[in-house]
Structure formats: structure tokens, C-alpha cells
Amino acid sequence: MKPVTIIAGTLAPLPRANVDTDQIMPKQWLKRVERTGYGQYLFNDWRNDEDDFVLERPEYRDAKILVTGPNFGSGSSREHAPWGLQDWGFEAIVAPSFADIFKNNCTKIGLLPVELNEKEVQWLMELAEADPHAEVTIDVAEQLVRFGAEFEARFELDDFTKHRLLNGLDDIGLTLQHEAVITDFEAERPPTRPVLH
Predict the structure, then answer these.
(1) Nearest CA to 138 among 125, 119, 122, 151?
(2) What is the distance between the terminal CA atoms of the chain, rounded to a whole angstrom?
(3) What Å distances lie between residue 36 and 93, 97, 130, CA to CA?
(4) Is residue 109 a contact partner of residue 86, using CB atoms and an 8 Å limit?
(5) pLDDT of 66-93, one tens digit each?
(6) Nearest C-alpha neighbor of 21 from the set 80, 67, 63, 69
(7) Residue 143 gets which letter from DSSP?
(8) Is 98:71 a contact under the CB 8 Å cutoff?
(9) How confident is the model at residue 197, as a pLDDT?
(10) Helix (H) / strand (E) containing 48
């Protein structure tokens, strides 16, 4: 995955609480074996059933940051939900809270989950609704969300996750940091013999 350092972009407001992974990525699209191409199915039911769903509005189509309500990503632990959000073009999700497994799945692919308090999320939601072209900056190293001189909010990020994001390390990348040790181990271990029954 690529390093996540600074995210700068517009916001898409989704003022809903308890958005679960079944709504983010409906079950009928989980039969594919690839990890890419899920963006077209993101919030599929809402996009088809609601006349004015936010992602169908041209002014929000290219937003890099989704701002939404509490308990985002609850429900089943499907990895397809973060894949779809990232494939759509989102680089960060801002919410008062996230489901733990969803949040963990996001950080493993470089999709940044940002937890702010409800008042701060509401401020960003109102900004997005009032001005779809307003650009917000998220600085991972400083753990800050900014909008000019008008808004600044700090978010928490544990040291390990921050290291992974800043250095672009997914699970494979973390393992490859120990490639020399793994290679030495493989070279020194005795050859395996087949088990006879």
C-alpha cells in the first residue's frame, strides 16, 4: 500500500448513525474474488433507492473524505466494505466512532479512519453541506484535521498504526521488513523429510 501522510480533499456528508457493512457493501456483490472493482457497488441499495443520495450528486462525486455518524462500519466483518470505499475514491472516513473490526480493516489497506467528537463531526458535516468545494486537510504525522484558520481538531492514532500508515506497510510489507531474518532461518533449518504412515 502507498504511504498515507497528508490527505487533502473535499467532503461528502452522510449524516447517518449505525451504518453497517451490509449497507456499505451489499451481500450480492461479495461473490467476486478480486480485491478491486467494488467501488461501483458502494452503498448500492441507497444509491438505487434514494433520489438524492449524496454519492449520486455530482458536487460530491470526487470527495476524498466521507463524514458520517457514529458507529460506522458495524455489522459483519467483511473486508469488502473498506475495499469499496477506497475503490470509490475515499482516502479517509471521519466519524465520532467506528466498529473495531471495520476500523482495523481500514488501516490495513491505507484507508484512514478519523475519530472526532460529535461537535467536530457536525461542524465538518455542515461545512460539506454548505460548501461542497471546501477542501479539508488531514495530517497523519500531526494527527490533525484542518480547514484553513477556521477549524482544527486532533485525532488519536496508536503508534503502531501510525507507523504502518506513514510508511505504507500492509501485513505483507510488515513481514518483508524481516526478510533477511526469514531467509537466514530458511537457509539454516534442516531439510524436511516426508512423514511415512
Answers:
(1) 151
(2) 44
(3) 19, 26, 33
(4) yes
(5) 999 999 999 988 899 999 999 999 999 9
(6) 80
(7) T
(8) yes
(9) 65
(10) helix 44-49
Residue 149 forms part of a structural domain: yes
Q: What is the pLDDT of residues 136-169, one digit of tens each?
A: 999 999 999 999 999 999 999 999 999 999 999 8
Q: Is residue 44 part of a domain?
A: yes
Q: Which H or E run includes 145? A: strand 144-147
For residue 130 the three cell numbers come to: 454548505
Q: What is the dihedral of CA 8, 107, 26, 90, to 10 degrees?
A: 10
The pLDDT value given to residue 35: 83
* CATH number, position 98: 3.20.19.10
Q: Would you say residue 175 lies in a domain?
A: no
Q: Domain tally for the chain?
A: 1
Give CA separation, 152 vs 49, 120, 157, in Å: 36, 9, 16
What backbone phi and psi angles, to 5 degrees, belong to 173?
-60, -40
Closest CA to 91 of 128, 138, 57: 138
Beta carbons within 8 Å of 76's beta carbon, 6+ residues apart: 20, 21, 22
Give 149-182 as a DSSP string: TTEEEE----HHHHHHHHHT--HHHHHHTTHHHH
